[in-house]
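so my prof wants the structure for this chain in the tokens format not the other one, which i didnt know existed until like an hour ago. anyway here's the sequence
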Amino acid sequence: MKRTLFLLLFLTSLSFFANAQLESAKQIFKSPKLQSEVSKHQTVAILPFEVKISYRKQPKNFSTEANRDQEHSMAKSIQASMYTFLLRKSKDYTVTFQDVDKTNILLKKAGMLDKLDEFTKDEIAKVLGVDAVMGGRFESEQSKSEGAAIASAVVFGGLGGKTGSGSLFLTLNNGSDGELLWRFFKSMDDNITTSTDDLVERMMRKVSRNFPYSKG
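here's what i got, hopefully its the right format
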């Protein structure tokens, strides 16, 4: 019994350490022009994120169409969560952020909304009437079902609820020439409690000191 308990505690600690290591993985790119360009910016648009959801082992009754719909829905959800987060802390930033509903309506009218990868960032910024555009990509690989994750969480006291892993890129492009000014990359765990608000909150906590528009 003691040996079994020790093994469970060891596996729990190992899982926690591995997750902490994954959560700490991040990379930041800053253009030499970053400071001089962002000082000119007044309004920034947040674009719908690119989302890719894959499975280590494809679940039963997997539907390509349903998976695509989930990716599309999450793209808008992350965009909205990002806007909500930045709006909530607007006093901490040197710029204002365009309402995402307005952004998406303008993109739809221009025929860009569902094919942003076919346009340059300066073309997009011109349509939106902004000084810069923020966007990104979220990739998630699911490793086990939600049911299995919940069962694991019960066994390990809440530390076993990891259902997969993900990576999140956040980019900032200049509106006048489309040049990449800043990019942030973060590896993230994805668990049964994760929402898009959680993902954005966790990412922005890590990036806050390096966010281009932060005051001071």
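also thought this was worth mentioning. The first helix runs from residue 2 to 24.
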